[in-house]
């Protein structure tokens, strides 16, 4: 069968390409798991649409509008692409109005110190990437940076700079020395915080000890500095409970203390507990009836806490699998090798079965956190890899089958509980329409659903066939999702299948997602096929990326 040509949709515009970059880190519709931490995605050649938009006065401010709305949507929990696009908007030279608006947005809305320091890091790198490299600390940069510091309340600024002193190779001290804020007319408490950033606590106390207005922030900063130096685990645990100090404040020597971690788990929200679970395990603090284990189990088994936290099922699944067997979790080879080298001389305790059970209980509750989109879905699943034998028979080859099934079940159960119309099917090994529906009870547990899907025999996936099946049976769907081990270019005719389905069913806005769980890249690299998204690998963000695509947010 002939390979389909690359298509360039007529509706493809610089604005749509820019928006797509914000969600997937590329201007073409392919998302790679783990791409948020890939430095290769953060260079101007990955964002040519910004130059196209900023070159015209009519579209110059559209990039900032898209950044604002994407921030507000809450879909992206790791906003590296958003911060990079904001830094690129501030560094471009086509539109002065966009440059000023980007700096203004930074100073007024990016109050998180992590976001601010990431912006500074990106802006510095972008200046060095220009054809005529510059230092990049001109009037616009200094004005925006100084406004970020001086527009905050003194107490908020003190809390920011004591909790997050440095990130991404930059510290607040470095930035203040470059921006030279004028603080003579500022209130004494704000001046005291700036003095603390540059010269430390002792000089700040010496200069402002007689200023009554500065006493509150001086006491706050002194308490934090005292806690940072504290190496008594019992005292540190008490201070954590009293002042709600975070992991960022804890002295490195206390990172293996069960008393400290017990206090941290009590004061953390559930996503933070889950995020740090493997770290606690590596420190040897779980199992054996430890109080840290008991606190974690209590948090996980609290239905109210799971629902209140809005934690995603994918977060809980990957955390549970990582805790149970870290080497069995899909991750980049470089990261896997780094973990192996880090822990090669260290004996990690066996996982606590009670924690694993609690994780899966929390996982089954968390499906209720998936928000409804009001759309109709067809999810078609393949459970392994195939090859043809000399006799023309098709043999199942063990590939990434278990993860394909589990990825599909995470997606399916969330949608089944949130949506009115969701159909789940598997690819069949027979000729013809190559799709067969599977009945799944929306109230079933994750484990029950996985077992049911594994029991179904499946065949080689032909990713265009689900649309032909739906067209043949005149079934209306807004979104098709294929969950497979890998894509085979020779048998890909999704473009024609999509066109046929849209015309026959009069559904021009139907979209297709090909989730390739077992591959880190596909032949779709750089290709742009109308209304088709390709997802490679599995990370916690994939379900939200698919949801945003289904909603036509990009």
What does this entry show, briefly?
This protein has 554 residues and is α/β, with parallel strands linked by helices.
Features of this protein?
alpha/beta; disordered N terminus; flat; 554 residues; 7-stranded mixed β-sheet; single chain
Report what the structure shows:
The structure is a single chain. The chain is α/β, with parallel strands linked by helices and 554 residues long. It is built from 26 helices and 11 strands. The protein has helices at 14-24, 48-54, 62-73, 80-91, 96-109, 113-129, 139-150, 154-163, 172-179, 188-199, 201-208, 215-229, 233-243, 258-267, 270-275, 277-282, 291-300, 303-309, 313-324, 333-343, 353-366, 401-418, 446-454, 465-472, 494-505, 542-550, and strands spanning 30-32, 166-167, 170-171, 377-381, 385-388, 394-397, 422-426, 436-438, 479-484, 511-516, 532-536. The strands form 3 sheets. It has a 7-stranded mixed sheet with strand order 1-11-10-9-4-7-8, with helices on one face. The longest helix has 18 residues, at 401-418. The radius of gyration is 26 Å and the shape is flat. The two termini are 31 Å apart. Residues 1-8 and 385-400 have low confidence and may be disordered.
């Amino acid at each position: 069968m002939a390979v389909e040509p690359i298509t360039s949709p007529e509706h493809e515009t610089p604005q749509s390409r820019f928006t797509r970059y914000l969600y997937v880190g590329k201007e073409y519709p392919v998302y790679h798991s783990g791409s948020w931490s890939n430095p290769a995605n953060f260079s101007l050649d990955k964002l040519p649409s910004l130059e196209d938009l900023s070159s015209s006065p009519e579209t110059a401010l559209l990039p900032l509008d898209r950044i604002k709305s994407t921030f507000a949507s809450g879909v992206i929990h790791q906003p590296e692409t958003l911060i990079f696009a904001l830094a690129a908007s501030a560094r471009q030279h086509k539109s002065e109005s966009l440059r000023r608006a980007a700096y203004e947005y930074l100073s007024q809305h990016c109050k998180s110190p992590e976001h601010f320091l990431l912006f500074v890091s990106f802006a510095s790198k972008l200046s060095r990437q220009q054809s005529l490299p510059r230092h990049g600390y001109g009037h616009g940069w200094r004005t925006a940076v100084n406004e970020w510091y001086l527009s905050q309340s003194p107490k908020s600024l003190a809390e920011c700079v004591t909790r997050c002193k440095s990130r991404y190779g930059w510290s607040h001290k470095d930035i203040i020395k470059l921006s030279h804020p004028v603080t003579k007319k500022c209130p004494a408490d704000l001046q005291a915080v700036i003095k603390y950033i540059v010269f430390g606590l002792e000089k700040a106390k010496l200069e402002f000890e007689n200023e009554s207005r500065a006493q509150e922030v001086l006491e706050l900063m002194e308490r934090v500095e005292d806690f940072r130096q504290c190496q008594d685990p019992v005292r540190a645990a008490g201070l954590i409970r009293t002042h709600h100090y975070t992991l960022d404040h804890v002295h490195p020597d206390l990172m293996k203390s069960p008393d400290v971690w017990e206090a941290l788990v009590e004061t953390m929200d559930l996503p933070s507990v889950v995020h740090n679970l493997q770290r606690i395990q590596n420190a040897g603090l779980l199992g054996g009836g430890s109080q840290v284990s008991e606190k974690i189990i209590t948090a996980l088994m609290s239905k109210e806490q799971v629902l209140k936290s809005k934690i995603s099922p994918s977060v809980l699944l990957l955390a549970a699998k990582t805790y149970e067997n870290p080497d069995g979790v899909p991750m980049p080879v470089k990261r896997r090798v780094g973990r192996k080298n880090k822990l090669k001389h260290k004996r990690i305790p066996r996982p606590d079965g009670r924690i694993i059970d609690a994780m899966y209980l929390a996982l089954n509750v968390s499906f209720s956190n998936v928000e409804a989109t009001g759309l109709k879905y067809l999810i078609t699943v393949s459970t392994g890899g195939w090859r043809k034998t000399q006799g023309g028979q098709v043999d199942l080859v063990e590939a990434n089958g278990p993860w394909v099934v589990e990825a599909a079940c995470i997606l399916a159960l969330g949608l089944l509980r949130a949506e009115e119309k969701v159909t789940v099917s598997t690819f069949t090994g027979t000729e013809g329409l190559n799709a067969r529906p599977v009945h799944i009870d929306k109230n079933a547990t994750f484990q029950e659903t996985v077992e049911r899907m594994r029991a179904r025999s499946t065949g080689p996936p032909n990713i265009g066939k689900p649309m032909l099946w739906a067209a043949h049976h005149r079934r209306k769907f807004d979104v098709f999702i294929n969950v497979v081990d890998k894509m085979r270019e020779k048998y890909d005719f999704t473009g024609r299948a999509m066109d046929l389905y849209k015309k026959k069913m009069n559904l021009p806005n139907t979209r297709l997602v090909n989730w390739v769980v077992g591959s880190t890249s596909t032949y779709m690299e750089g290709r742009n096929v109308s209304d088709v998204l390709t997802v490679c690998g599995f990370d916690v963000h994939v379900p939200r990326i698919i949801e945003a695509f289904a909603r036509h947010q990009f």
